[in-house]
Description:
There is one protein chain. By secondary structure, the protein is mainly alpha-helical. The protein has a domain at 1-209 and 465-494: Serine Threonine Protein Phosphatase 5, Tetratricopeptide repeat. Helix content is 47%, strand content 6%. Strands 1-3 form a two-stranded antiparallel ribbon. The protein has a two-stranded antiparallel ribbon with strand order 2-6. Helix 8 (179-196) packs antiparallel against helix 9 (211-224) and helix 9 (211-224) runs antiparallel to helix 10 (228-240). The longest helix has 28 residues, at 44-71.
Amino acid sequence: MKINNNFLLNIFIVVFLLSFTSCDKQLDLNPISSYSAGNFYQTESDFDLAVNGTYSILRSLYNGDIINTLECRCDDIQDDPINGYDHNYVHRFQNDAATPLLTTVWKNYFSIISRCNLILDNIDNCSFDNEENKDYFKGEAYFLRGYAYSQLGFLYGGMPLLDKTMKIDEIKTIARSTQSETFDFAAQDLKTAASLLPEVWSLEYLGKATKYAAQGILARLLLFQKKYSDAKPILENIINSGRYAMADKYGDCFLDEYDNSKEHVFQVQYISGDIGQGNSWVAKEIHEFAVDSLFPWGGTSGANLVSPSLYDAYEDGDLRKKFSVRKGYITKQGVVDVVSIFFIKYAQGTIPSQKWDYEVNMPVLRYTDVKLMYAEVLNEDAYVAEGEAFNIINAVRRRAGLSALTSGDIATQEEFRIALFKERRVEFAGEYLRWYDLVRTGTAVSVMNDHFSRSDEGGGSKFEMKDYQILFPIPKYELEVNTDESCMWQNPGY
């Protein structure tokens, strides 16, 4: 169900307002601290605008930057030898601290943190007609800040932990924490958010973060840290809420007519109409195709190519393959390409009037992911032949048109673990979760170097991943702004 309310309209308004009140000269850890709290944060409506404006940064991130950072890092993407865009350097592990893409991602997540701190610093000074709304706004701010810190910690390692609005000189005295401390900070924010947010919003505000969105992102963070026993009751709470269900068809997870359905625990919201709120990533996923029914507006010269290894990872008869990826296309010049592979899974809904304005939302947390995380937790707790973990993975496979797995196919805990992550790869292809899974399973270096050894990947062993590249470098720009090496320093190896 696509939202049709003042949520996205308020996002549009507040982005316009913030464009005149931000300050580029501020350290990007706190890029809008010059925003006049005394002039703006006075009414309930002000906080409504401020919170919705903070969501808008997610729209920017998921229109390319964070996807190019996460998706291109993994073996689901093939090197494009023709184009020298940032995401190609990320894929080749040839990026450095000056790579603009990584700076943009850093800035955007810290912009979220800054805006959340402004909201939390000022909200108790305002009287609300409905005090419950105040808790909701706080919950959204804690959710967004916790999500931003969980992402920053995963991408760059330990972060300076900012829990209030500060001036530049104050920020420069806050030293980087460890990655573990950063995750703990994010986890606490997400727990606080879950305690304040509603279980469900009214239709007018459909698409905002809920209690279960906060719990789901928290569970994902806990699994990354292998805290399975901590994640288990959280995942059970989401499952037992009865508010979510797997979509009947795999394709329904990615059609705009099913946005905000029970399959989706949290999505980044988009709406078409040529008002600057549309999803442009759909067109960025493909090269400049000749006009066809699926891509009447074509794509871009710097699209991501899907790797043959992902294409071959689908089992025979897997319905997800035809919906998710496409091999071959005709260029605008009429050249037939029968080799290149592209993601098409977000392009099969409503066709907009121009290519940067698709309606479809981007998934952040699907209920299928919640279920598969729960299957993982159950298996890590104890392998049980034909147990609930088997039921979950087989439900996912049945929807994909595949046969069920039995204890005859996967007879041990390790075999189940391997089968589960194989299933995750094809289920979430193009959903920027593969790199996350490679890192948390400790297989990133071996998988990526095996990937680079393929003859169809840069000619074979042309590229290499080193151990330290589990983390991205701290952006050069940030190190130039904050030169105190006792507070801000580069990650090892860069």
